[in-house]
């Protein structure tokens, strides 16, 4: 049994996970759309990185074939290999890019995560990646004693502004049917990946001037090296000790002293709906079934002045995992007082015990301070490693859609408005959309009334656009003044009102548990207050057939096409919205009908986000 670098990553978080992985237990990542998107983004960056080495040779196939191919190519004095398989005893690593020059190697780890060369690098933020490189270094050093090894991370640089228009459109991802046993680094818990390694297609692969595009990538692209050799060498003792311990576990089995259950288990990848092979429940036994659970507590990682979750670990060690096992006295801060967070936690415990909804006495006065018209707004945005537009940085924000429900006077029907950028009906399809996004919203909201958001995303987006106006030298004083007025920063309060904060301070329902996201608050309100279903402007979100349980309006979202014509998932979350926008902009295989369908789904999803705010506000007495 071999210890791959994905095995090493996983076991470093918890040795017991290594056992579950080797036993092929299912993981939560098997159906995690967000993780799949991250993995695909990583492969696109990986493809771009390999194009910087035109003479590089890709090592492909199953593990044994790759080992054999790698050994053959290593007989050359100088060679560049993509994903060579290197073995030392039971240790196995696949290196992203390995440059061999005689007895010297340059080990290059490609990551989609960004860094910023304009800022002082914080090695702590890169520790996970440096450890990954350090294990590869260890295996390579054992396989080639006496060799010299330089180690680098190759990552998107947020300090770089690309001179390439539509860089994100230069690459596309195609699903592959062919199977191999290669692991996905982004999903180290998977033994047999649910997401096959995709094929990344370079748009100009067959172009007669392909080399010119590659040269442009090297000169005006976004990737930058970061030398981590010294940091890698410093941690070799620790890496080798860990590897030896993990190999002992693989060969001899795991003992009770090798791991322990802690607060960190809350995020275990092996906690799935599978009843036969659930690693979390195997570790926790009967404690895993406790309801309500301490893990449900609002911001449970920070209880009183126990900011590192030490109190939870103390309870777990005593076999106490019920929410009601929490001592209210421990919710107090270092001054012996219940702060705002401790107060919220106590409200949750007491109302969960009594199965009661809680609305603060102050909510009515807060509502009375809101000025009509009320504008309930929601944004959809995109951030990705590859910039869409010339002049953009990696992971620079694009605001491509807003929805707004406006209540002009108390008791009037909400009026919906919306804006979306898909590049099709824009004056210039390649134009950076953020400033038109903000202008259109300014025209809709104006300077009167109260705009409401859920959490701080909308404020952050508008503050970002305000900064982008300076960077892109946009001369529009009315827009600049409006953005400054509507947003908050550390020095001033703007017009935007946060309904998530209102929830934290004034509303609780047991179904929400410790969450205050709109995706938790809406089902709690909608399911337990049927009077809302009879209100005319809410009726579209009442299911035609329902067998009982929790009603979630997001489950009513459908495609505009028939099931035969639309076999993909319907856009009903932020990750799906990002993917839909990217496909509309750059997927040349999409028919116009399916392009229109994605646009329709984006509009109905964002519209529901703002209607959800209206529904919740109505229940609070804001009508």
Give the structure's gist in a few sentences:
This protein has 623 residues and is of the alpha/beta class. Helix content is 37%, strand content 13%.
Question: What this model shows, in words?
Answer:
The protein is α/β, with parallel strands linked by helices and 623 residues long. It has four domains: 5-252, no CATH class; 260-265 and 277-355, no CATH class; 363-498, no CATH class; 504-619, no CATH class. 37% of the residues lie in helices and 13% in strands. The strands form five sheets. Strands 1-2-5-6-7-10 form a six-stranded mixed sheet. A five-stranded mixed sheet has the order 14-13-12-15-16, with helices on both faces. A hairpin with a 2-residue loop joins strand 5 and strand 6. Helix 5 packs across helix 8, helix 14 (457-471) packs antiparallel against helix 15 and helix 18 (574-586) packs antiparallel against helix 19. The model has no long low-confidence stretch (mean pLDDT 90).
Mean pLDDT: 90
Question: Helix/strand-derived class?
Answer: alpha/beta
Give the DSSP E fraction (strand runs of 2 or more residues).
5-15%
| Helical content band | 25-40%
Low-pLDDT regions: none
Radius of gyration: 27 Å
């Amino acid at each position: 049994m071999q210890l791959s670098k994905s095995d090493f990553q996983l076991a470093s978080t918890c040795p017991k996970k290594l056992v579950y992985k080797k036993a092929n237990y299912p993981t939560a990542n098997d159906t995690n759309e967000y993780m799949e998107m991250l993995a695909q983004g990583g492969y696109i960056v990986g493809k771009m990185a390999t194009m910087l080495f035109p003479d590089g040779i890709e090592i492909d196939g199953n593990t044994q074939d790759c080992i054999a191919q790698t050994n053959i190519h290593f007989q050359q004095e100088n060679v560049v290999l993509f994903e060579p398989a290197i073995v030392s005893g039971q240790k196995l690593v696949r290196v992203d890019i390995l440059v061999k020059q005689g007895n010297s190697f340059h080990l290059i780890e490609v990551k989609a995560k960004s860094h910023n060369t304009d800022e002082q690098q914080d090695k702590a933020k890169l520790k996970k990646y440096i450890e990954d490189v350090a294990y590869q270094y260890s295996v390579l050093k054992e396989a080639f004693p006496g060799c010299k090894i330089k180690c680098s991370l190759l990552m998107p640089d947020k300090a770089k502004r690309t001179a390439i228009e539509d860089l994100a459109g230069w690459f596309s991802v195609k699903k592959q049917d062919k199977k191999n046993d290669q692991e996905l680094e982004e999903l180290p818990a998977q033994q047999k990946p649910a997401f096959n390694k995709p094929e990344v297609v370079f748009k100009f692969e067959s172009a007669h001037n392909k080399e010119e595009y590659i040269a442009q990538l090297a000169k005006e692209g976004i990737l930058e090296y970061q030398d981590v050799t010294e940091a890698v060498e410093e941690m070799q003792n620790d890496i080798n000790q860990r590897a030896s311990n993990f190999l002992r576990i693989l060969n001899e089995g795991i003992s009770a002293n090798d791991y322990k259950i802690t607060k960190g288990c809350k995020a275990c990848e092996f906690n799935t709906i599978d009843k036969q092979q659930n690693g979390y429940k195997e570790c926790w036994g009967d404690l895993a079934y406790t309801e309500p659970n301490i893990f449900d507590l609002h911001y449970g990682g920070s209880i009183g002045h126990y900011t590192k979750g030490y109190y939870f670990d103390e309870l777990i060690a005593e076999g106490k995992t019920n929410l009601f096992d929490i001592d209210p006295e421990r919710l107090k801060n270092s001054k012996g007082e219940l702060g705002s967070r401790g107060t919220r936690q106590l409200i949750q415990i007491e109302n969960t015990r009594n199965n009661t909804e809680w609305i603060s006495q102050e909510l009515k006065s807060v509502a009375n301070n809101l000025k009509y018209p009320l504008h309930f707004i929601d944004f959809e945005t995109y951030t990705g490693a590859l910039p869409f537009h010339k002049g953009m940085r990696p992971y620079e924000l694009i605001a491509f859609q807003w929805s707004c429900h406006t209540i002009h006077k108390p008791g009037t029907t909400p009026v919906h408005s919306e804006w979306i950028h898909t590049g099709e009906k824009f004056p210039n399809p390649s134009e950076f959309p953020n400033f038109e996004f903000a202008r259109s919203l300014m025209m809709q909201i104006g300077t009167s009334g109260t705009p409401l958001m859920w959490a701080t995303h909308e404020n952050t987006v508008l503050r970002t656009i305000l900064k982008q106006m300076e960077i892109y030298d946009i001369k529009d004083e009315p827009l600049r003044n409006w953005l400054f007025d509507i947003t908050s920063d550390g020095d001033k309060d703007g017009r935007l009102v946060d309904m998530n904060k209102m929830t934290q301070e004034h509303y609780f329902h047991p179904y929400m548990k410790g969450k205050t996201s709109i995706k938790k608050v809406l089902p709690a309100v909608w399911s337990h207050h049927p009077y809302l279903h009879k209100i005319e402007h809410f009726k579209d979100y009442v299911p035609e057939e329902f067998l009982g349980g929790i009603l979630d309006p997001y489950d009513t979202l459908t495609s505009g096409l028939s099931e035969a014509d639309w076999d993909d998932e319907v856009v009903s979350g932020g990750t799906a919205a990002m993917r839909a926008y990217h496909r509309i902009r750059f997927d040349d295989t999409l028919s116009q009908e399916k392009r229109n369908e994605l646009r329709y789904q984006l509009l109905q999803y964002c519209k529901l986000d703002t209607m959800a705010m209206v529904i919740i506000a109505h229940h609070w007495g804001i009508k």
